[in-house]
Amino acid sequence: MIMKRFLLVLGMAGGLTTLAQTPGATGAPGAPAKAPTPSTPKATNAPPTVPPEVDAKFKTTEERNGYTLGTMIAEDMVTRIRKLGYDAPNDAIARGFTEWINNKSLLSKDETRKVFAVMQAEVSKKNEEKKLAEGAKARKEGEDFLAANRAKDGVVVLPSGLQYKVLKAGSGEVKPKAEDTVICHYRGTLLDGKEFDSSYTRGEPAKFALNRVIKGWTEGLQLMTVGSKWQFVIPSSIAYGENGSPPRIPPNSTLIFEIELIGIQPPTADNAGAPGAAAQPVTSDIIKVPSKAELDKGAKIEVIKAADLEKLQKQQSELAKPAPEKK
User: I want to staple 277 with a disulfide (CB 3.0 to 4.6 A). Which of 109, 225, 273, 321 is the partner?
Assistant: First the structure.
């Protein structure tokens, strides 16, 4: 009976995870959380053994094993409780654990559930209050930073609140449209300089549809030309807003990006518009970016004039036609 109740405690310890997942708790930023990778024990010929000095502390093997399980459960439960922000007395925790295991608990199962529900509500409220306080602080810091930054030399402020400064001018006049796919290097930091994302760190440029990113990026990159490098300061209202992107980007964060535009590709079926929509005429130049393998072989980025595009498409269409059969 005692062992059965002991196993139930194991399940209850896992249930504390529910408290950690209340609104306001941190989670994986913009991506599903990765499952922990189980550690693989090193291969060994000898089975694990208990040191004699450990065995000497207990009268029986059962006592030693039970004590070890209790220690493990206590460590896990207290760690979770502290992370949740509770300062529960250790003696009260130990008493509740011991009396419940021995069927002497002051609380029935129903009473325990009711208390636990109140605990969950308290944790949720505390996390929400913390989130609001941090969000208000971040909003004020962002407003102060934007006000100071706009007075600096070379900084341009747009009606949306987006600020930018040209670090390196590009060549040509071609600029991406919202429906285009862009290839760029970038580095993103918080106001305290902490880096939360970087294509430089990953060792390769990023490629994505410009209408699938935060509003500050969509607006800002449409002003750039290939080869240019700009610094953007993006207010939270056109970044990740009140929710942020936990755990890397807190709520209401103003973000700083350095972006280098490497190439532009025309729209794909995924971001060009509704299926079956009529093709829009090309009115601007097209940047043709070779693959990495082609670049390694010496291929160059090409600029295809709008006037030459139709001719090029006809040539490719002719080459794709099957050769006539010989009679």
Answer: 273
Task: Report the pLDDT value the prediction gives residue 42, as an integer from 0 to 100.
Answer: 58
Q: Which two tokens stand for residue 201?
A: 């760190």
Please answer whether residues 178 and 210 qualify as being in contact, where contact means their C-beta atoms are separated by less than 8 angstroms: yes
Domain-located, residue 111? no
Q: Which amino acid is at 269?
A: A
Is residue 3 in some structural domain? Answer: no
Domain that holds residue 174: 156-271+284-307
Q: Is the pLDDT of residue 194 over 90?
A: yes
Confidence grade of residue 56 (pLDDT, cut at 50, 70, 90): very high
Q: If DSSP codes are grouped into helix, strand and coil, which group holds residue 269? A: coil
Kindly list the catalytic residues: 186, 196-197, 214, 240, 257
**Position 245 in a domain:** yes
| Chain centre to alpha carbon of residue 288 | 31
Cis peptide before 247 (omega within 30 of 0): yes
Total domains in the chain come to: 1
Report pLDDT for 269: 65
Higher pLDDT, 295 or 129: 129
Nearest to 229 by CA among 205, 259, 189, 199: 259
Question: Diameter of the chain by CA atoms?
Answer: 100
- pLDDT tens, position by position, 139-150: 999 999 999 999
